[in-house]
Inverse folding.
């Protein structure tokens, strides 16, 4: 005899949008890594139970409207200045969980001094660094992390080290400083890496909550639009090519064995 | 310094240190600064005193970082201040525009020095345009206060925090190297304990309320226009309520000296202790708020005057606002000293004679 099932049993939820993610249509390009990262952030904030304590600092870049997508208190910052804004905020509200969410132009070009000094002071904040090797919002210019020979609107013949220098490895740069607690590079290019990214994000926020120290998680993110690839190709490219210049892994973890 | 003061007691104190002491008594909880002459005494004072009196001090990596730290602290609801001198204040202009556009309070002290460029470390008044005509991008205004004595540095710094919080605007205190460095008597015991207003808009974590946003970005022109009109309405209220100025000398003066800050105090000497007898009556009209500028008050006085001499330590910046207020009622002349030079009472007197005798 067939078992009668109720409507609700038939429609049991196995996967839902986290509460912390607002029901908004994002403006990101199809295949953009920001979509994955926003979700991971929302999940981690929810799972750690810090939604009422979290304050995000949004960048100038593709993620300028991040505050419309994640339901916590947010501040904007001028281009590159998120770490300085975060410093002021965290110092006056040490019990809150303050994080910045920045692209590679914001963090490593105009904001390089703020990035280095916030890490050097060991501010108890978390930086989420989305590295897509290019300026997205302004339509595809060279960034400090642009690969050699990569064509962009300001390197139309490809990045030439003799005039444009070399891509900067921010985690390794900050590893020269004494204070940082966690510096790691990951990617969202494959499901395995997405899970790894979530674990690192969680750890980074825990290091703030537990007073361990400053953390920065660098996430190699596909940019199909300005890499001029299909989304599928861009995900392969992030894992196979971009990660050669920017090796994945934990560069520093003061609590490595815990 | 920073010790308790007995009732009625005066202290011998520099302008720079007075600003720091007044700020702390006004409830300043966060200060970020960077070394630059001639205001280093203020930064050092805050480094020493602020952490001992319930606040946070940070020497930032640049003046640019400092103003953005102030932005963050203020966004969190704390009374926050930074200070610098002319070239460093140039660096802060972007941050000040963001503070104005995001409708958060902040206090900025500019201890002016000679410019443009690296200039020198002597006192000047050449940042008037920068202070009152934006300095940064966009349609915004800062309340600008111009002390002329160390006591005024104290009183106006205290006031700055109340004004910044009341109107949610940046307030700039326009000091200069002479005022910052000189030592004068000042009292602090008349300052009431700080009473900051509630800040329901502040970022404190979304606990039991809708989320708060501190931002100035409005992608749609309709929304940005709405924000700008709101700001303009706020500025109109400030213009109506917060003008401050002082007249020294005879009513019905024939000739007016118009000057602020250090120039103002030298002109006061010309009026109160004249070096020679002049064949006309001279009074000093001293704006204390440079924005809002006391246009109405000046226009009234200009009705009865036969001439105005503006004295500035610049090539002539405030003189524009004087001419706008006077609207041709009487001639407006300028005595401007540039490059860090300070005018003397004698040269002002001689110029008055040459122009109006």
């Amino acid at each position: 005899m067939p078992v009668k099932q109720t409507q609700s049993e038939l429609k049991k939820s196995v996967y839902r949008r986290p509460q912390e993610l607002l029901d908004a249509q994002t403006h990101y390009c199809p295949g953009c890594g920001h979509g994955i990262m926003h979700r991971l952030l929302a999940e981690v904030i929810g799972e750690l139970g810090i939604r009422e304590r979290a304050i995000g600092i949004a960048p100038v870049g593709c993620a300028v409207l991040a505050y419309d997508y994640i339901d916590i208190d947010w501040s904007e910052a001028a281009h590159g200045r998120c770490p300085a804004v975060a410093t002021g905020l965290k110092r006056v509200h040490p019990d809150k969980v303050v994080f910045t969410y920045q692209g590679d132009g914001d963090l490593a070009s105009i904001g390089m001094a703020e990035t280095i000094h916030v890490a050097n002071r060991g501010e108890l904040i978390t930086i989420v660094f989305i590295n897509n090797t290019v300026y997205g919002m302004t339509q595809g210019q060279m960034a400090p992390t642009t690969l050699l020979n990569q064509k962009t609107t300001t390197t139309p013949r490809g990045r030439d080290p003799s005039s444009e220098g070399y891509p900067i490895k921010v985690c390794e740069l900050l590893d020269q400083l004494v204070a940082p607690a966690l510096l790691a590079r990951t990617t969202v290019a494959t499901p395995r890496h997405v899970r790894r990214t979530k674990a690192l994000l969680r750890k980074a926020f825990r290091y703030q909550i537990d007073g361990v120290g400053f953390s920065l998680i660098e996430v190699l993110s596909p940019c199909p639009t300005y890499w001029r690839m299909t989304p599928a190709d861009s995900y392969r490219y992030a894992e196979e090519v971009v990660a050669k210049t920017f090796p994945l892994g934990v560069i520093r973890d003061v609590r490595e064995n815990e | 310094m920073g010790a308790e003061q007995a009732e009625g007691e005066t202290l011998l104190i520099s302008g720079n240190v007075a600003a720091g002491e007044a700020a702390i008594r006004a409830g300043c909880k966060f200060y970020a600064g960077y070394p630059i002459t001639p205001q280093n005494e203020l930064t050092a004072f805050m480094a020493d005193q602020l952490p001992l009196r319930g606040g946070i001090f940070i020497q930032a990596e640049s003046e640019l970082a400092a103003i953005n730290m102030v932005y963050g602290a203020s966004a969190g609801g704390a009374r926050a201040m930074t200070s610098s001198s002319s070239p460093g204040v140039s660096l802060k202009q972007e941050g000040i525009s963001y503070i104005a556009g995001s409708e958060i309070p902040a206090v900025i002290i500019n201890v002016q020095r000679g410019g443009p460029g690296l200039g020198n470390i002597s006192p000047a008044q050449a940042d008037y345009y920068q202070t009152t005509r934006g300095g940064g991008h966009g349609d915004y205004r800062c309340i600008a206060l111009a002390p002329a004595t160390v006591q005024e540095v104290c009183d106006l710094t205290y006031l700055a925090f109340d004004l910044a919080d009341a109107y949610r605007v940046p307030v700039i205190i326009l000091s200069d190297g002479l005022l910052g460095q000189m030592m004068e008597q000042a009292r602090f015991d008349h300052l009431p304990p700080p009473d900051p207003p509630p800040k329901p808009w502040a970022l404190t974590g979304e606990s039991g309320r809708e989320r708060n946003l501190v931002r100035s970005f409005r992608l749609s022109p309709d929304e940005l226009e709405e924000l700008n009109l709101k700001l303009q309405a706020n500025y109109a209220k400030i213009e109506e309520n917060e003008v401050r100025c002082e007249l020294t000398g005879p009513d019905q003066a024939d000739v007016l000296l118009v000057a602020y800050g250090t120039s103002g105090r030298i002109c006061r000497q010309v009026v109160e202790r004249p070096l020679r007898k002049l064949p006309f009556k001279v009074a000093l009209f001293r704006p204390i708020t440079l924005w809002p500028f006391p246009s109405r008050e000046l226009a009234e006085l200009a009705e009865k005057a036969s001439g105005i001499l503006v004295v500035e330590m610049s090539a002539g910046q405030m003189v524009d606002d004087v001419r706008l207020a006077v609207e041709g009622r009487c001639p407006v002349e300028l005595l401007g000293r540039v490059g860090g030079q300070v005018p003397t009472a004698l040269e002002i007197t001689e110029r008055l004679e040459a122009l109006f005798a």
Observations:
- Residues 308 and 332 of chain B are 5 Å apart (CA to CA).
- The mean pLDDT of chain B is 96.
